[in-house]
Amino acid sequence: MEHNQLVCEDARVLANEGVGPRLFVVSLESPRIAARLQPGQFVHLQVPGMPDHILRRPFSVFDCDPQAGTLDILYQDLGYGSHRMTDLCAGDVASQIGPVGHGWQAPTGTERALLIGGGVGAAPLFLHAKALLAAGVAVDVVLGAATKAALATYDAYTALLGHAPVVATDDGSFGFSGFCTQPAADLLAAHAYDHVACCGPEPLMRIVAQMAADAQVECQVSMERRMACGVGACLSCVVDTTDGKRRACVDGPVFESSKVVW
Ligand SMILES: Cc1cc2nc3c(=O)[nH]c(=O)nc-3n(C[C@H](O)[C@H](O)[C@H](O)COP(=O)(O)OP(=O)(O)OC[C@H]3O[C@@H](n4cnc5c(N)ncnc54)[C@H](O)[C@@H]3O)c2cc1C
Ligand code: FES
What is the residue range of 116's domain? Predict the structure, then answer.
């Protein structure tokens, strides 16, 4: 995605609802960004009501309807900005820059893909799953969360796939008891995949990257970094890769996992 396709748009809040412990989905009317967005790209959001905080916050797009001109963000109430987001009400306006960065790109000819999302990392994989399914690719999804209540995307994935995704919870309250790396490893051993995509905490992505390398399957990860400018100018978001230092905001956030220096 080239910079000249970036748009700065005042997005109108349509809804903002709690979907789990400290988890919310905000739905935004943002037709110009929705029309341009590719799966895995993100928006840089100026949270309203923060005059003393000028920096935007990066959020992946969970779902998007280009026809309706809307997009959804699944976010965690984690700090100052995301906590202020929980106050957003229908009719409020938030400035967004987007779509930012390079998203997922499954290799040409992919027939079966494995998508692994940990925590809110499940969000940026949803549009990827949608696009792969629309292209006739068989898609297996593994979701990991701390608890059953934190599996905020479970119903959406179930509706999309036509069956439930494979689930792991840290506390064993639903699905496999433990980290989602185990069911992911089981699936990797059971099927011939052409493509693995993973988003979540960095330790999860590092393990998945190694598992995919061992299974000789192409793998992409979405790297989270603190971001200041979001347009490639400040270098606050650098990722070490085998090609040198790369900016997560414009060179990523999706990288080939084999190129990331973990
Ligand atoms: C490309 C990208 C996509 C993202 N997508 C999502 C998403 O879909 N849903 C979601 O809930 N979050 C997502 N994040 C993380 C989100 O940007 C941060 O949670 C948010 O900026 C925190 O802002 P804050 O003001 O609430 O936190 P602050 O008060 O600034 O910080 C609170 C805590 O959050 C940590 N933090 C702040 N910024 C980041 C960051 N960029 N990455 C990791 N930790 C951070 C801080 O270290 C601190 O521990 C994404 C981040 C990136 C880079
Ligand atoms: S956030 Fe400034 S270069 Fe990436």
Answer: 112-222
Which two structure tokens, joined as six digits, stand for 128? 């990827």
What is the average per-residue pLDDT within 135-163? Answer: 98
pLDDT in tens, 2-27: 445 899 999 999 999 999 999 999 99
Q: Compute the residue count for the chain.
A: 262
pLDDT at residue 4, rounded to an integer: 53
> What CATH number does residue 44 fall under?
2.40.30.10
Q: How far is the CA of 161 from the centre of ligand 1 (A)?
A: 28
Q: At 160, which CATH number?
A: 3.40.50.80
User: For ligand 2, what atom is nearest to the CA of residue 247?
Assistant: 4
Residue 194's identity, in one-letter code, is: D
pLDDT of residue 3: 45
Q: Cα of 15 to ligand 2 centre, how many Å?
A: 29
Ligand 1 centroid distance, CA of 75 (Å): 9
CB-based contact 81:47 (threshold 8 Å)? yes
Residue 144 lies in a domain: yes
Whole-model pTM: value is 0.95
Residue 118: strand, helix, or coil: strand
- Look at the block and give the residue holding tokens 């609802």: 17
CA-CA distances (angstroms) from residue 17 to 42, 76, 121, 226, 240?
A: 20, 12, 18, 25, 36
Model pLDDT for residues 81-122, shown as the tens digit of each residue: 999 999 999 999 999 999 999 999 999 999 999 999 999 999
Q: Candidates 25, 50, 59, 60: which one to mutate for ligand 1, based on the most atoms within 8 Å of Cβ?
A: 59
> How many domains is the chain built from?
2
